[in-house]
Design brief:
This protein is α/β, with parallel strands linked by helices. It has 20 helices and 23 strands.
Length: about 550
C-alpha cells in the first residue's frame, strides 16, 4: 500500500455493552450497568482501575499499529460503542473521575488520545469516529452531541473526525450502522457541515454514499475533506480508478440491499456482493482469461443472472446472443426497481444493459426460446437463465377473491382491494414490499407469516426500517400462521404450532409471498439430447415444480386464480 502512495489506518474498537451475549462469553464491560435494548445485554460497570487498564489497552494497540508500519489509528466512538458509553449522560452514571461532569465523561476518550500522542511519533495520525446523533428517542440528539465534540476538540488534538449517525443500542438506531436503501446520505450532511466548522482537524463524511456523484455532492455541501465509502467499494472495488478516469457510468452501483456484505457477515459467513459475483471470490474469478477457443454462446433469459452470464462470456471473447421472451431486460428485478426502499436496482439494471454493448452481446427481445426445436439455433454452448415464477401454495382459492403472487401484485395496475392479506411463508422481504405498496394504496393490510416474525429472513437493519414503516402505516403483523384456505367469505388461517384455525372476514385480495417456483423440465429435456447446457440464477437454484404424486394438486386445480 505504501508503494502505491496510500496511507493505512486501523480502527481501535471496543464495543463495551454492545456485543452479542453468549453462555460462555465473559461479562460485557461498560461505564455503568445500563442495559442495551437491542442486544439485551446488561453490562458490568468497570472499576476505576479497570478503566485505566482499558485506556492502556487502547494505547498499546496504537503502538503496535505503528510498529507494524501503519500510519495512524482511529478511535471508534460511533454507534454508542465504549467511548460513547462514557461520554453519554444517558449511559454513564459513574461518580468517579470518569463520570458526572462533561469533562469527566469525556476523560476516557481524551486520555486515550493524549497517551497515544505521548507514545507514538509526531506524524502518527490519531482520528476519531463518532455518531453526530443516535437517531432514536433514547439516544443523543445532535444538540446533545455537539458540546461533547467541542470539549474533546478543545481537550486533545485529533487529526480528523469521521462523522456518522446511529446507535447500536436500539432497533431504530442500529439501522444506520450500515444504512439500508431506505436511508439517504443526507442524514449526515447537516451535522457534518457543522462539525467541519467546529473542529480543528479534518473531517470525513460517510454513511450511504454509493456513487461518485453523491461523494462529490457531499464534499461540496459539507465542506468535509474526505468521503468514506464502504459498500460502494465492495460492489465495485474499481470505483476510485473509474472515477479518476471519468468512467462514472461504468461504476457498478451498490443498491444497499445488505445481503451479501453485512448480511453474510452477521451470519458468520465470508462477505460477498449480491450485484458483483466476483466480490469475495477474487482468487477464483478476479482475473478471467480470454477464451482460448471462442465459441458461439446462446443465453436464454434476460434477468440479472442471464445478463451477467452474457457479459462475462462476451468479455472473455465468445460470440454471445441473448434471447429474452419479453420486451424488456431485468427479469423479476424490474418489479422491485421502482420501490423507494429497494435502492438503485434500476441503476444496476442500466449498468448491466450498458455492459451488453461494451462486450458486443446481441440481444433479441420478444423472442421465446423453443426447446423442441433446438436444431434451429446456432450455438456451441447454451446457458439457461429462465428464472422462476411466483410460487402459490397448495390451497384452494375462491374465484371471488383476487389472488396474486408477490411479483404479480407489484407489477399489476391497481391490484389491491380494500382489505388485503399478504401470506408470507418464510419472513421474506417481498411480503414487506407488497404490504407497503398496498398500504400506500389505502388498503387495510395484514401480513400473516408462518415465520416467527414478518421480515425474519431479511437483513436486520433493513428489517428494522421496513417494520417501522409498516407500523406507521397501521399494517397488522400476525406471526405463526399459514393460509389454509381462501374462501368466498373468509380466509382460514392455520397455526403452525398447534394447527388451530382462525378466520379473517371481508378479505378481497390475497397475495402469496411464497418465493419462486422454477420449472426444471426444460433443462431435463435438453440434457438428454446432444446439447451442452448450463443453468444460472433461479432456474438452477429453485425447483418446486416436480410433484411426487401423479394426481393434480389443489394449486394446479385452481391455477387460473
Amino acid at each position: 500500500m505504501h508503494e502505491a502512495d496510500t496511507r493505512v489506518m486501523a480502527q481501535l474498537f471496543h464495543g463495551g455493552r454492545e456485543r452479542y451475549a453468549g453462555e460462555y462469553a465473559p461479562p460485557a464491560l461498560s461505564a455503568s450497568d445500563e442495559p442495551t435494548d437491542r442486544l439485551t445485554v446488561i453490562p458490568r460497570p468497570m472499576e476505576t482501575a479497570e478503566v485505566y487498564e482499558m485506556i492502556d489497552a487502547f494505547v498499546d494497540s496504537a503502538v503496535r499499529m505503528e510498529q507494524a508500519g501503519l500510519d495512524g489509528v482511529e478511535i471508534v466512538g460511533s454507534h454508542t460503542y465504549l467511548p460513547a458509553q462514557f461520554w453519554s449522560p444517558n449511559v454513564n452514571d459513574r461518580n468517579d473521575e470518569f463520570g458526572g461532569t462533561l469533562e469527566n465523561r469525556c476523560r476516557f476518550t481524551v486520555e486515550i488520545a493524549d497517551r497515544i500522542r505521548e507514545r507514538t511519533s509526531d506524524d502518527f495520525v490519531v482520528g476519531i469516529r463518532l455518531s453526530a446523533e443516535e437517531r432514536s428517542e433514547q439516544g443523543l440528539s445532535f444538540d446533545e452531541t455537539l458540546p461533547i465534540i467541542e470539549h474533546i476538540d478543545d481537550a486533545t488534538m485529533l487529526d480528523y473526525w469521521s462523522v456518522v449517525v446511529g446507535s447500536s443500542s436500539t432497533q431504530e438506531g442500529c439501522s444506520y450502522i450500515v444504512p439500508p436503501a431506505t436511508e439517504s446520505e443526507i442524514v449526515t450532511q447537516s451535522p457534518a457541515a457543522v462539525i467541519d466548522q467546529t473542529v480543528d482537524g479534518a473531517t470525513i463524511v460517510t454513511s450511504r454514499i454509493n456513487t461518485p456523484e453523491k461523494a462529490t455532492q457531499m464534499l461540496d455541501e459539507t465542506g468535509a475533506d474526505v468521503v468514506g465509502m464502504t459498500r460502494a467499494l465492495i460492489a465495485d472495488p474499481e470505483l476510485p480508478a473509474k472515477t479518476k478516469a471519468g468512467e462514472w457510468d461504468d461504476v457498478i452501483p451498490c443498491v444497499a440491499c445488505n445481503q451479501g456484505c453485512i448480511g453474510r457477515y452477521q451470519e458468520g459467513l465470508p462477505i460477498r456482493c449480491t450485484i458483483n459475483p466476483i466480490t469475495g471470490r477474487e482468487a477464483e474469478y478476479g482475473d478471467l482469461d480470454s477464451a482460448t477457443t471462442p465459441k458461439s454462446v446462446l443465453v436464454v433469459g434476460g434477468g440479472p443472472a442471464g445478463l451477467i452470464a452474457a457479459t462475462t462470456a462476451g468479455e472473455r471473447g465468445h460470440d454471445v446472443t441473448l434471447l429474452e421472451a419479453t420486451g424488456d431486460l431485468g427479469g423479476q428485478i424490474t418489479a422491485y426497481a421502482d420501490l423507494d426502499h429497494r435502492g438503485r436496482y434500476g441503476d444496476w439494471l442500466a449498468t448491466l444493459k450498458s455492459r451488453l454493448d461494451d462486450h458486443d452481446v446481441t440481444v433479441e427481445l420478444n423472442t421465446r426460446f423453443d426447446p423442441d426445436n433446438v436444431a434451429a439455433y446456432d450455438f456451441d454452448e447454451l446457458i439457461l437463465a429462465t428464472g422462476a415464477t411466483g410460487r402459490r401454495p397448495d390451497v384452494s382459492v375462491a374465484e371471488s377473491v383476487a389472488a396474486y403472487t408477490a411479483v404479480e401484485a407489484l407489477r399489476a395496475d391497481n391490484p389491491f382491494g380494500d382489505d388485503v392479506l399478504v401470506a408470507d411463508w418464510d419472513g421474506n422481504e417481498a411480503a414487506l414490499d407488497v404490504a407497503s405498496k398496498a398500504a400506500d394504496a389505502g388498503a387495510d393490510v395484514e401480513i400473516v407469516t408462518a415465520a416467527y416474525t414478518p421480515g425474519e429472513s431479511v437483513q436486520q437493519y433493513i428489517q428494522n426500517a421496513l417494520l417501522g414503516d409498516l407500523y406507521s402505516e397501521n399494517v397488522t403483523l400476525t406471526p405463526h400462521y399459514r393460509v389454509d384456505a381462501v374462501e368466498a367469505d373468509e380466509v382460514v388461517l392455520q397455526n403452525v404450532f398447534n394447527d388451530e384455525r382462525e378466520r379473517r372476514d371481508s378479505v378481497d385480495t390475497v397475495v402469496f409471498a411464497h418465493g419462486g417456483e422454477a420449472n426444471y423440465e426444460q433443462y431435463r429435456n435438453l440434457s438428454v439430447v446432444d446439447v451442452s447446457v448450463h443453468r444460472v440464477g433461479d432456474c438452477w437454484a429453485l425447483d418446486h415444480s416436480t410433484r411426487r404424486s401423479g394426481k393434480p394438486t389443489r394449486r394446479q386445480q385452481t391455477s387460473e386464480h
